[in-house]
Amino acid sequence: MRVWKEVTxxxxxxxxxxxxxxxxxxxxxxxxxxxxxxxxxALEPPPSSSSSLSSTSARKPAxxxxxxxxxxxxxxxxxxxxxxxxxxxxxxxxxIATLVDRxxxxxxxxxxxxxxRAQKGPKPCSLHEIELTVSELGLGYESDETVRFRxxxxxxxxxxxxxxxxxxxxxxxxxSSEKGRRGRDNGKKDKARYAPCCRPTKFxxxxxxxxxxxxxxxxxxxxxxxxxxx
Length: 230
Fold this sequence. Notes:
Layout: H1 2-25, H2 49-58, H3 65-85, H4 89-120, E1 126-133, E2 146-153, H5 162-175, H6 178-186, E3 198-203, E4 207-210, E5 216-219, E6 224-229
Antiparallel strand pairs: 1-2, 3-6, 4-5
């Protein structure tokens, strides 16, 4: 029902735009702003009778374009109205369906563009899931059994605190000074982080499986259950 209202409104706006376009194109071009004409001075002597007669005879008749423009506008409006009346009910339904389909496609395209723009930005810290074999966990167990491993991934840009800002400033300042470069060369392995990291805040209690020799194992704190910026 909302789409039909929008189509009706579109028809009304189109008709109004067409009417304004006709008014603009058929308006007389000889009209000008009366304020631009210089005012007549009171000290100018009145013209003589001979000069007034000659000016009257030399004066051309004023054009009647306004009347003709009105007639042309009325003719075009009648033609436009007749064009819509000439459509059958099936043709009108087809036209409206085409307009509705175009509007829906435009809305879908705009939604898709917004989604792509949102995907280009940094993804926040969140919980993800992947299926792996126990051997692929890298814990030393030989088992082809498949388990669900949940992990944390994402950016923590909006979770920075004053501590992180100070640490970033210290590293940048030390990197731009001789003293900072000497200290950095002496302690490359002790480089502090200046941004929070996406880490698990809770773990699954246990993960059970059989190895390739049918031996049963239970391990703890392997899969994440909740994530956060720490």
